[in-house]
Amino acid sequence: MDLLDRITSGLPQMTPKFARLSRFILKDPNHLALHTSAELARSAGVSESTVTRLAYFLGFSGYSELQQAAREVLKKNLVKLEREMPLEGENLFTRVFSLERNILDETLEKMDPGVFEKVVDLLYQSPEVWVVGIPPDNPPAAYFSNRLNLFRSGVHLLTKLDVDSFPALKDAQQGAVAVVFSFPRYPRMGRETTLFLKKKGATVIAITDSRLSPLAPHADYLLLSPVKLITVIEPYGGVMALLHSLLVGILFRDKEKALKKAMEYEDFVKAADYYIHKDIDLIDFA
After folding, report:
1. In what helix (H) or strand (E) does residue 206 lie, and over which residues does it extend?
2. Mean pLDDT within 124-142
3. Does residue 216 contact residue 206 with C-beta atoms inside 8 Å?
4. Among residues of the chain, what percentage have pLDDT more than 70?
5. To pair with 111 at 20 to 30 A between CA atoms, which of 61, 101, 220, 225?
6. Is residue 163 over pLDDT 60?
7. pTM of the model
8. Does domain 110-271 have CATH number 3.55.40.10?
9. Given this model, what pLDDT does residue 148 score?
10. Concatenated DSSP letters for 162-184?
11. Which helix (H) or strand (E) segment is 25 a member of?
């Protein structure tokens, strides 16, 4: 866990002054890396003693160690910036692929293996799964819902909260899990749907870009994949790799059961003559 993750995870327990200073650091970590404690305090509008106490709160021996952690973040960001800088004569598609590759790396860095395993267990064991993706966050939600349906029953896709969807939603089962997608600029209805399911007793798994996401405070489990926009088109490479990993994890909780359900789907599409090519090559990870 790097400094920024440590700060954001501690925000709910912080005093107002600690939270004010922490949000300043999260917005501009370079300020911490490059300035004295007095300069940081003045810029953030807090006392120098607050800076020192925050360092202790975060588990550092003092300001020097806190600043060194910020410099490590700065160093890492500079390396990423060098990787993202376009080379002379570089094709546009190469730049886009480079952006997606860096997002994949950051998604992997932010993944907590313990959280990942708990999420897989929940998705495998829960009686019901609600997959929520309010537009424009519906594409990854639709993919995940569709593929999860291959391995288990009781999966529901929700892309809007209205009079048509409410009857089913109000009858959500006890012990249900809600997988909610929300990325900048964070559709308001996504948060409202999350709060509704939370009140129904659902365990919320939020898939979003940051611990500062509006969804984060309401999540029981948080899975992060950063979003770096070059247009209004969202780069979903990291999100899709994350979803693929979850699906494979669910499959391997009970491979025989999952494959049996997948074969029921195969039997159906073959009987319907749905695909041009009838066979599919499966990679065996066992």
Report:
1. strand 203-208
2. 94
3. yes
4. 91
5. 61
6. yes
7. 0.71
8. no
9. 94
10. STTTHHHHHTPPTT-EEEEEE-T
11. helix 16-27
